[in-house]
Structure formats: structure tokens, C-alpha cells
Amino acid sequence: EVQLVESGGGLVQPGGSLRLSCAVSGFTFDDYAMSWVRQAPGKGLEWVSGISWNGDITYYAESMKGRFTISRDNTKNTLHMQMNSLKSEDTAVYYCNAGGALGHWGQGTQVTVSS
User: Fold this and answer.
1) N or C terminus of the chain with fewer C-beta within 10 Å?
2) Do 83 and 30 contact (CB within 8 A), yes or no?
């Protein structure tokens, strides 16, 4: 059974930090590039960041550059994203994804940035 389980979300004040994790099982993790995608309240899905199968190449949406860092540990089948300097507009449910829109998705973890 394919499983992607996100964790690490929560309530944080503006300017704060969170580290999201996604534990993967049921498929060969290092066969896939991975992404983080988010959905803010009342809005559609927004791609946040991506990482190549071996972690050598990373990609970020413009508004996340310099604040978010995606990483992966293929020995532990885990994807991470360090989020710093959080803003209220970063409030969203964050999903990890393997294989694009028709690939594998987690259930999401809520990130709320509020004072």
C-alpha cells in the first residue's frame, strides 16, 4: 500500500519556522522526484518546491526562494521542507507528492501562520 504521511505542521507566529516531513512507503522512493504542494483556504493547489530523485537539484516557487529548503533522505524514505520567515500568506495545507498530479499524494498537514 502506498503511503505518504506528512507531519510537522502547526500554529506559528509570523517570522517563525517549521520543518515539515513526509514519510513514504509502498513504492521505491528514489525512483521519484518529489514535490511539496499547498492549498490555502478557498484557493487552488499551489506548487511550492521540488527535488530530484537524488536530491541534487531543487526547485522553488518564486515567493519561497530563500525562505524554504526542500531536502530528502533516500536511506529513510523521507522528504523534508524547512520553512523559515513564515508569513500569514503561507497558511495552507501542505501536501507531499510523488509523480505529479496523477501520482501519489499524502493527506496533508496544516500550517497556520498567525499572531
Assistant:
1) N
2) no
Reported as a single tens digit per residue, the pLDDT across 52-101 is: 999 999 999 999 999 999 999 999 999 999 999 999 999 999 999 998 88
Strand partners, 58: 51
CA distance 50 to 79: 10
State the DSSP code for 43.
S
For residue 90, give the DSSP letter.
G
Query: H helices within the chain, ranges in order?
Result: none
In angstroms, the Cα distances linking 71 to 20, 34, 36 are 10, 9, 11
User: How big is the chain, counted in residues?
Assistant: 115
Q: Which residues contact 2 (CB under 8 A, 6 or more apart)?
A: 25, 26, 27, 104
Enter the DSSP assignment of 71.
Answer: E
Cell readout for 84 is 523559515
115 Cβ contact partners less than 8 Å away, ≥ 6 residues apart: 13, 14
